[in-house]
From TrEMBL:
<feature type="domain" description="HTH araC/xylS-type">
    <location>
        <begin position="230"/>
        <end position="328"/>
    </location>
</feature>
<dbReference type="GO" id="GO:0000976">
    <property type="term" value="F:transcription cis-regulatory region binding"/>
</dbReference>
<dbReference type="InterPro" id="IPR032687">
    <property type="entry name" value="AraC-type_N"/>
</dbReference>
<dbReference type="GO" id="GO:0003700">
    <property type="term" value="F:DNA-binding transcription factor activity"/>
</dbReference>
<dbReference type="Pfam" id="PF12833">
    <property type="entry name" value="HTH_18"/>
</dbReference>
<keyword id="KW-0804">Transcription</keyword>
<dbReference type="InterPro" id="IPR009057">
    <property type="entry name" value="Homeodomain-like_sf"/>
</dbReference>
<dbReference type="GO" id="GO:0005829">
    <property type="term" value="C:cytosol"/>
</dbReference>
<keyword id="KW-0238">DNA-binding</keyword>
<protein>
    <submittedName>
        <fullName>AraC-type DNA-binding protein</fullName>
    </submittedName>
</protein>
<dbReference type="Pfam" id="PF12625">
    <property type="entry name" value="Arabinose_bd"/>
</dbReference>
<keyword id="KW-0805">Transcription regulation</keyword>
<dbReference type="InterPro" id="IPR018060">
    <property type="entry name" value="HTH_AraC"/>
</dbReference>
């Protein structure tokens, strides 16, 4: 688990568009000038909370968190949202987001089913204080945005539970399309248990085309004379969206049985595991070379359970850790 939160570089621009002075915000939050100008913005939980409290204080719109948590343009979705949207259902998307949070920052998504209800909560593992209300709004708006975009419907929760004693209830109810219950012992967005099974129309969407357009173009450049292992590798790369694809899944994509897939690979001197590792290696190099993805984000997208597993695998491929390899590539390009 990382001890820092990564703040999207696009946040400063969004705040300016919404009438919030970034310099005034940083002063209010007690953060150094230029904090949001860095290529990698990493904040402790205390700094992260201070930033969001400042946004809540400086914004003239009480629903600022709802606005910042809702995105309509696919090119602006972050990697975890893209990976979640490529899954098969709302429940699977939530499980993917929970795994990503556990891997990448001191935050945890707790989701549980209790009879007809399915609740989703955010837990801040290193927090000494309650999370800012605007951050709570953003997190729940983010979940709803994923649900609506993925299902292609105007799905609404059963209700929203908030620990705060009073709030801009009408604004919240209009956004979420459900009752808002204040003064509860927890902050939770509560759906119907059956909602977890809702299929995603975005399943296996053009994730790689958005995450790695140059690589996607390279894949499309292959002609029909590509070898069978290359076809399998390309299929694996399209399915590496936050989880490790199983051989049954790849065989289904290629309209083969798993046994036939294994036999045809063996005939060319390969195993499924070898081709999977080749696919991961090729994508890993591309992610590190062509994007600002953090190492734990790359590990997540490549289907590793934790960043240490990714580091070990990459060291086996390249002989050096991924951070050293990325720095060497950047130095080479700069000279």
């Amino acid at each position: 688990m990382s001890k820092h939160f990564r703040v999207p570089g696009r946040l400063a621009l969004r705040l300016q568009e919404l009438g919030i002075s970034v310099s005034a915000l940083l002063r209010d939050a007690g953060l150094a000038p230029g904090t949001l100008d860095q290529p990698r913005i990493l904040l402790t939980t205390e700094e992260f909370f201070a930033l969001w409290r400042g946004i809540g204080r400086l914004s003239k719109d009480p629903g600022i968190g709802l606005i910042l948590g809702t995105e309509t343009k696919p090119e602006h979705f972050d990697p975890v949202a893209l990976a979640a949207l490529s899954t098969s259902s709302f429940g699977e998307a939530t499980r993917q987001m929970a795994r990503y949070k556990q891997l990448s920052c001191p935050e945890k998504i707790i989701h549980r089913t209790d009879g007809p209800e399915w609740s989703i909560q955010f837990q801040w593992l290193l927090a000494d204080d309650h999370e800012p209300e605007v951050l709570t709004d953003l997190c729940f708006a983010y979940v709803l945005n994923i649900a609506r975009h993925g299902t292609g419907t105007k799905i609404s929760p059963l209700h929203l539970e908030l620990a705060r004693p009073r709030s801009y209830t009408r604004t919240l109810e209009r956004h979420f399309g459900c009752p808002v219950i204040l003064g509860k012992p927890r902050n939770a967005i509560v759906f119907r248990a059956a909602d977890a099974e809702l299929p995603f129309v975005t399943r296996n969407a053009e994730l790689l085309a958005m995450l790695a357009p140059q690589f996607d173009e390279a894949l499309k450049a292959h002609t029909g004379d590509e070898s069978f292992p290359e076809r399998v590798r390309a299929t694996i790369q399209r399915k590496l969206t936050g989880q490790r694809p199983r051989i049954e899944e790849i065989a289904r994509e290629l309209h083969l049985s798993p046994r036939t897939l294994q036999r045809r690979l063996q005939d060319t001197g390969f195993s499924f595991q070898q081709v999977l590792e080749q696919a991961r290696h090729q994508l890993a190099r591309h992610y590190l070379n062509n994007s600002m993805l953090e190492l734990n984000e790359a590990a997540y997208l490549l289907g590793y359970e934790d960043s240490n597993s990714f580091v070990r695998a990459f060291r086996g491929w390249e002989g050096v850790p991924p951070a050293h390899w990325r720095e060497a590539q950047r130095t080479r390009l700069a000279t």
